[in-house]
Design brief:
262 residues; mainly beta; Porin; 11-stranded mixed beta barrel; two-stranded antiparallel sheet; 7% helix; 65% strand; globular; DUF2490; signal; DUF2490 domain-containing protein
């Protein structure tokens, strides 16, 4: 049986993750942080294939405390068909030291990205494959500037619990894993694993609460005759997300996956 390209890519990512896990010295943290995500979404429809989104996000080092990070981003999307969407988007990302917020940001990142989303509906289970290429410009507090690029792939699975499709008054599960790849190395930069429970109130409002583990990887090194293996540092976070969907006028109802643009 031949595998379709998304499955081939997924198998490669899973194999790479397994290899890294076997070679990695983990440095897990036991503390929890918080991610707050608020999204205004305009999905494409059969009346107009163009759509877009705007989003604001805040993160804290502790649970509802020690805020240190915020995002402001938005983008324009186009539905090639009902299961294929492309997007051009950008954002501003600010990171500070929560112990001295008055000193200003440690760094400001401006980001531009291009994205392809493929959706698959296998009866009750829904799959979203997201491919993204990012260009990132950093300005640090000391005046130093840096450019980086990154490739991301996310597989998101949705399962409605009280209906066959996700629509008004539907409770659903959402699970995803996303890999972050650095073209300049180290190739495997970050992994993000999420599991959450959501509820779509009506045609507009979607609420989600869940857990995300974000693990960053540092490359292996060899210096002064000593080999240092790949090192990782992970953190668990409580995620609270709210989406308001602006449905286009006269568009007929259609199932839309309640995925987070982040």
């Amino acid at each position: 049986m031949l595998l379709r390209p998304p499955y081939v890519f997924l198998l490669i990512c899973l194999f790479a993750t397994a290899r890294l896990s076997a070679q990695t010295t983990s440095q897990p943290t036991t503390t929890w942080g918080t991610w707050h995500i608020a999204t205004l979404l305009l999905p494409g429809s059969e009346t107009s294939r163009f759509g877009g989104f705007a989003e604001v996000q805040a993160r804290s080092n502790g649970v509802f405390s020690q805020y240190f990070y915020n995002e402001l981003k938005g983008g324009l999307s186009y539905d090639i068909d009902k299961n294929v969407t492309v997007m051009l988007a950008g954002g501003r990302y600010s990171t500070a030291d929560y112990r001295e917020l008055s000193a200003g940001a440690l760094n400001i990142e401006k980001r531009l990205w291009q994205q392809l989303v493929l959706n698959q509906y296998l009866n009750r289970i829904k799959f979203e494959h997201r491919y993204r290429i990012e260009q990132r410009w950093f300005t640090f507090r000391n005046g130093q500037e840096e450019f980086r690029s990154r490739i991301r792939y996310r597989l998101n699975v949705f399962v409605p619990l009280n209906a066959r499709t996700i629509g008004p008054k539907t409770t659903f599960l959402s699970v995803y894993d996303e890999v972050f790849l650095n073209p300049r190395g180290p190739a495997f930069e970050r992994n993000r694993l999420y599991a959450g429970l959501g509820y779509q109130l009506d045609a507009h409002w979607v609420l989600q609460a869940g857990w995300v583990n974000q693990t960053n990887y540092n490359p292996a090194s060899f210096a002064q005759g000593q080999f240092t293996p790949i090192a990782s540092a992970g953190k668990n976070n409580l995620v609270l997300s709210i989406i308001y969907r602006l449905n286009q006028h006269k568009a007929s109802p259609a199932e839309k996956l309640p995925s987070q643009p982040d």
